[in-house]
Amino acid sequence: MKTYLAAVRAQLMVETYKSLPASRGWLLRMLEADDWWLRASRAHEICANLVIKNPAEKFYYRDVFIWLPDVRWPREGMPACPNCKCNSKVQLHAHADVRDFGRRVTAEHTHYYVASRRYKCTKCEAQAAASKAAALAMKAARGRAAAGRVSVEMVSQTFTGYNSVSLDLLPHGWGELFPAFLTKRAGLDKGLVYLMELLLPAGIRANKLAKIIRALHTVRHADDFIRREEDIKFERTGLAKDFLKDVPFSTFGDTTLYNGSTPSGKYFQDVFVMRAALLRPHMDMEVLPRTALAVGTLCCVPRGRCSAAWFGAQSLLGLTWRCPPR
Ligand SMILES: [Zn+2]
After folding, report:
1. Which pLDDT score, from 0 to 100, does residue 188 have?
2. Cα-to-centroid distance, 164 and ligand 1 (Å)
3. Distance, CA 87 to ligand 1 centroid (Å)?
């Protein structure tokens, strides 16, 4: 899969050099036709086009989602800078490094990859350069004796196309078309995120959910194993050629082939907390405009156990409630 992703990246670099629709190459045309997915089922066709010698068996390839909003929607799709929330001074910065191209995303039964490229905001770049120059001038004015460390507010000038703030700023709800929720190094498919957000409040613990997802992934591995055995039998009849090799099927955890792995319970818990923090302002805005039939305060003090310190002073823990209309 690493060779495959590296070859896809190289081909995209060539084809997006001129991203006008009329000059699009075979890969961009294929992406457009498949809703910007490189499906694993077409991996061998893509490998042939990419001139990859000795491709792996079809069971070891995964879907790849390519997120290039400025290529997909040339007029309005340039992603906005997450810092200044504007795309007027945003331009392409660079393609992702080979090692970073293709973020792994866990779905319910298997995993896939998402890939994008990096953009640069020249407006924030100029502001950062100006603040740095001002800080250096201030340091010089103080003189050597008084000079200490002058702090410069570091503003990120580059960002990846799938930055969550940038996705929310895309017009026409295009950001919702991005299929995954990403964390620093990994990601979860949105379908799995929604499932998690239903199951965890319903009493399913994060560790239990991790075990369920692990079971689903290993079932998929077993299904692939059986499918491969049937394909080998069919291939021996001479009626089909499916690139199957005379070697045992990869184990689930073999990182060079099947590369199966699933997130831990702690990861699910962390994503749940992150999502809750993101949704909270929206939920608060939803609740605030509503009228209430009654407002009250609930405060229980069982033998002083509910007392708490607030800035050094003893206070009571209570709950303010409001009864929404039915
Ligand atoms: Zn900016």
Report:
1. 95
2. 15
3. 7
Q: Which residues pair with 181 in a beta bridge?
A: 188
- Average pLDDT value over all residues in the chain: 82
Pick the range with the lowest mean pLDDT from 69-73, 230-234, 248-252: 230-234
Q: Report the alpha-carbon distance of residue 284 to residue 77 in Å, rounded.
A: 30
Tokens 């640069």 locate to 120
Domain boundaries, given as residue ranges, for the chain: 2-132+153-286
Residues ≥6 apart with Cβ < 8 Å to 271:
181, 183, 188, 193, 196
User: How far apart are the CA of 85 and the centre of ligand 1, in A?
Assistant: 6
Dihedral of CA 44/45/48/50: which sign?
negative
Q: Among candidates 116, 81, 112, which has minimal Cα distance to 186?
A: 112
Q: Are strands 180-182 and 187-189 parallel, antiparallel or unpaired?
A: antiparallel
Which pLDDT band holds residue 210 (cuts at 50, 70, 90)?
A: very high
CA of 161 to the centre of ligand 1 (A): 14
Distance of CA 66 to the CA centre of its chain: 12
CB 81 within 8 A of CB 124: yes
pLDDT score at 318: 63
Distance from Cα 185 to the centre of ligand 1, integer Å = 24
Closest among 5, 107, 2 to 64, alpha carbons compared:
5
- Distance separating alpha carbons of residues 321 and 116, to the nearest angstrom: 45
Distance 177 CA to ligand 1 centre (A): 23
Distances (CA, A) of 75 to 65, 79, 117: 21, 11, 18
Q: What is the pLDDT of residue 272?
A: 92
Backbone angles phi, psi at 149, to 5 degrees: -80, 120
